Amino acid sequence: MPSVIPPIISQAVAILKQGGLVAMPTETVYGLGADAKNSEALEKIFQAKQRPINHPLIVHLADIAQLNEWASVISPLAQCLADAFWPGPLTLILPKANHVLDLVTGGQPSIGLRIPSHPVAQALLKAFGSGIAAPSANRFGRISPTTAAHVREELGDAVDLILEGGSCEIGLESTIVDVTRGYPVILRPGMITSTDIESVLDHAHLSLPPENIYSPVTTPRVSGSLNSHYAPQTPAKLLTTEEIFLFLKNIKINQLPLAVMAKSPGFFTQKKMQENIQYVRMPLDSHAYAHDLYKILHELDNKNYKQIIIEDVPLSTDWTAVRDRLLKASFKKILI
Ligand code: TXA
Ligand code: MG
After folding, report:
1. I need a surface site. Which of 96, 159, 303, 307 has the fewest CB within 10 A?
2. Is residue 307 in contact with ligand 1, taking CB distance under 6 Å?
3. N- to C-terminal Cα distance for the chain?
4. Is the pLDDT at 211 greater than 70, yes or no?
5. From the CB of 33, is ligand 1 less than 6 Å away?
6. Considering only CA atoms, which of 296, 255, 298, 302 is closest in space to residue 279?
7. Would you call 4 helix, strand, or coil by DSSP?
8. What counts of helices (H) and strands (E) characterise the chain?
């Protein structure tokens, strides 16, 4: 029996079919969606985000059965990762099908595809029945939105409809894996880690020796790989615990007010908390940290602090994606 389509989803489908923009929640971050086969609609994404035209977009699909329509080759490696992690926070870079527009791929022969698990994204994709191109729903270079309110704040009237889907469960963008080379290359780390990928890989899936496995390529066309991407407007610094204590000891009045995002209990048991410093207690678990990170950066960025000091996180695999975003948030300011 066909399920009933909620009126808001029917409205979103109608907007997409007319070439409009719909912001949709996914389990990673909110996306700014347009019909991936409509070049005028795709142009609106680039205008709304103020994103350079050669940066490719991820096409979102409802289910694996649609893969053949968008990718020209689905290797055993691609199939293995798709079966293991979709629907979910994984984007695969595959050889594109002939019809795919240059605006989607940035003129490259490959396409980024993802099947999100969020129920609202799933409902929209199923009802729409085709690919929805959707970058994160923020202006170029800014922090990705993890709530509908963030999207409204960032893009406002540039979007025809914002679908409400609560706070994104994961909170960081998907892991992007290039599977066009015969072995997987992680172009952008996410909460599906290299260990997770390794654990499902049968080495029979690799058509080339895995020397370079998981190593990022030097010049990928991934806007998220630009060093200054995902930055708050307030200068941010990533420092070790000791560096922060030293910095705070010698703080000058003109450096205040500021915020400190930290995990170590020492910051919260100080006898005398300095005035004009907001301490934010960050979660100890990497998943909880990822979930809260952009929300907290958004909040702090709206408070006119002179700077945001961030305590560094572990180097272990489960923290790789979080640390990648912290480095990007603090780039340019790290040497100050
Ligand atoms: O979690 C996510 O991936 C979110 C949600 C909305 O799905 N989307 C997202 O999109 O983060 P965006 O555009 O902000 O980042 C997608 C990245 C871009 O940096 C883009 O360059 C890269 O994916 N990308 C897309 N197609 C590609 C391709 N064919 N080759 C290399 N990189 C590609
Ligand atoms: Mg983005």
Report:
1. 303
2. no
3. 62
4. no
5. no
6. 296
7. coil
8. 11, 13
